[in-house]
Amino acid sequence: MSNDRHDESQSSNQRKNHNPKIALILSLLFAGLGQLYNKRYVKGIAFIILELAFIVTFKDFIHLGLWGISTLGTIPGTDHSIFLLVYGLVSIILLAFVITFYVFNVRDAYKQAQLIKKGWEAPTFKESVKEGYDKSFPYLLTAPGLVLVIFTVVFPLMFAISLAFTNYDLYNSPPRNLVEWVGFQNFVNLVTVPLWRSTFISVFSWTIIWTLVATSLQIALGLFLAVLVNDARIKFKKTIRTILILPWAVPGFVSILIFAAMFNDQFGAINRDIMEPLFGVSLPWLTDPFYTRIVLIMIQTWLGYPFIFALFSGVLQSISKDWYEAAEVDGASRWQKFRNITLPHVLFATAPLLIIQYTTNFNNFNIIYLFNQGGPAVRGQSAGGTDILISWVYSLTFETSNYSMAAAISLIIGLMVSIFAIFQFRKTSSFKEEGKR
Q: Which residues does 197 contact at the CB level (< 8 Å), separation at least 6?
């Protein structure tokens, strides 16, 4: 009995003398040492093996990557600046994984040391495995997806952002020449150099007009047709709905190419069979930016309204007829019922999707490029008369090889869309109501 009491007293003294700060310092010096100090031998050895394996495998690669991303090479013809930039970004991602692992290692060692000091008894190996599996199971399932997202979304985004701060273009293209870091010079040139400034202002203005007008028109047309077809006096509703949704059934690029042929200045059906016989004029649909922009807005309205029509039709079916009957009893007119019942209900239910329509059209590359490749050309500008920001980026990238400026404009596009979306979502009533539930 006295020996048992002596052992218990000695064990209690050891736990009281167990110092969490020592575990913290050891885990900072090398992953796993803090766990060994806590007598968590399996976990400690596993952490040590992981760190040693990382050092042996990636030490040289990370050294090259960090050197490469800081210098982008020093010997033209030998060092490839873009490869070095890629190595550097991958190295940063790997270091982020290591830092996350190290933070977990330090916190684990320190917290367990505190528990041991308070008298906590470590579970058996079998219990530890079961507990660890239960806690880590969700992370094990999501880890592959997280890694995939990092290397397919985050990494390309980091690469594009990095290019925006370099001078990577046709004249500074590796391996013959080195790429250099230029800071915010591309953004400064965008607002100070006359050619870039005039082009940016023109393209940006048209992008805003295009987004607001084309999207608002397709929403207005979709709402008008949905309300009209939903009227109780309309017969053959299913047939009418089917006909109105037909433009949505045809692939968008096919419709755009057909419209491009129809509006051709020389042989298009619009000029040849409609404008000339009826009005005696032939309009420059593809050679005058003003007319081309009008046509693009009309085509986008045609292509976009079926989705809005189908969306609003479904919402209108959910509005109770009792509301309209009560409004009629109160003497409300058709306009008052629409303004006070139909419109608020529809907008509340569809606001997030309508916001997405605006952000989608802001970057609607397909129609701009397929209809007229962003043309016609405009004197004194490096973009076409109907180019929006995203199609201008495409032209800078694949036609003039001005990669750094294209990346800078892409960064501006991303910031604008993100700010707009976040602001609108926060102001949307449906999201406010969702947050209160």
A: 190, 191
